[in-house]
Amino acid sequence: MLPIRYTTSLSVIAAALLAAGCASTGGIEDLPRPKSGHWQVSSTDQAGDTVTFQDCMDKDTFYKTRELQKAKHDVQQCQTGSNKDSNGWQFTSNCKVGQTEQRIETSRKITGDFQTNFHVLSVTKQQMPDGKIVETTRNIMGEYMGACPAGMKPGDRMFPDGNKINFYDITGLQAK
Questions:
Q1: Distance CA 175, CA 75 (A)
Q2: Which ranges in the chain belong to alpha helices (H)?
Q3: I need a surface site. Which of 87, 105, 117, 152 has the fewest CB within 10 A?
Q4: CA-to-CA distance for 72 and 68, rounded, in angstroms?
Q5: What is the pLDDT of residues 77-93, one digit of tens each?
Q6: pTM
Q7: Alpha-carbon gap, residue 152 to 125, rounded angstroms
């Protein structure tokens, strides 16, 4: 069994990069799509803790990630918004937590050309059962490295310690 930080990083990056604002007014075609291939990614939280990994991504992985996040947003009764300007994309969501009246608000600012690099600044505010608001900030940087290396296939995420997870294995979705 992989440590929770590996599977958490999959959902954090999928939510922040690939699924940001999936119910946007402009539609999926207007949203950033990373170039297919090998990406080096680092994700740093507000405490300075960084998780690094390598992703092998293709168009199918990108769209299936979006579908998964869209379904999640529908279940969580999310209200979403998006805006594209000359500086990048801004996505917001406000989602219900389970059967409670608690909410999670997320704002993501995404920049980069998604052919050579990207940057995501994600700020999440979660209302706790006691009414307290917990804010989490995450900076995610990606750099395109070229074609996926031997031993990596679309959907794979490789960590520095050699552990690997696959998007399709975790989600149960089928690759093309």
A1: 24
A2: 4-13, 59-75, 167-171
A3: 87
A4: 6
A5: 778 888 888 888 888 88
A6: 0.76
A7: 35
